Amino acid sequence: MSGFGVAGPPPAPSIEGWNHLRTGKVRDLYSNDSGEILLVASDRISAFDWVLPTTIPNKGAILTQLSLFWFELLADIVPNHVISDEVPESVADRAVIVQPLEMFAIECVARGYLTGSGLVEYNTNQEVCGNPLPAGLLDGSALPASIFTPATKAEVGDHDINIDFQSAQKIVGAEAAEDLRRLTLALYDTAADFARGRGIILADTKFEFGINMAGEITLGDEALTPDSSRFWESDGWAPGKSQPSFDKQFVRDWLTSSGWDKKSPPPELPAEIVAKTAARYQDAYERITGSKF
Fold it and tell me: For 43, which DSSP code?
């Protein structure tokens, strides 16, 4: 069953001059006659591989503007796919015009802290995606150094699958895998240092790369948002417990306690959970960028 539920994905709005290509969990993609892509971030939110029926106000604009901030900050490390943020008025602030990329078929994940699926694997074999780690680490422990933990890309409604570096080499080629690991860790380490100065821990993050028309590895999709990263409060951080976060944790916690079976279409979110989640997204944006949203 699709992660959008029985009704399927929502209809994408019509935008003059742009042809709808596809709808993902959060984004709608369009193309024009010049071959450019219009990447529109909606206010949809997903959890447990389902797109929820309730939207989060301003989420799409926050994801887009935060990505633009990071793209500019990290441009010296790797080129990105952005052509322009001058977009049709109907999608102002929540869309960018980008170059088409031939995307690599792996998710490029960097981790500086142990949690989530990494913690599950560590508790089994003291490794994460083939990276051996010291004994005695807890949920939320800082790692000795950041690690590259790639994953396969899943269709909507399916889980990404963590893989080791050798498996990534088989999928994208040995040379490309080396480049992607190097770039992923350089981006993560630079962003984590920056975030630390704003009182935020960047626990882990996911990047997507492709090849542009000039044959260069290029950063695409989004970058370092609460949807693609775990941001934690530096002040409240302590290993061995759940960390205070800037993402959709309010949503996950409420869904877990609601009695929803995670197999049938999810319930509507209460107004209080929507408001708290929207506030956390906005807080992350303002803390990181130093600007009011």
Answer: S
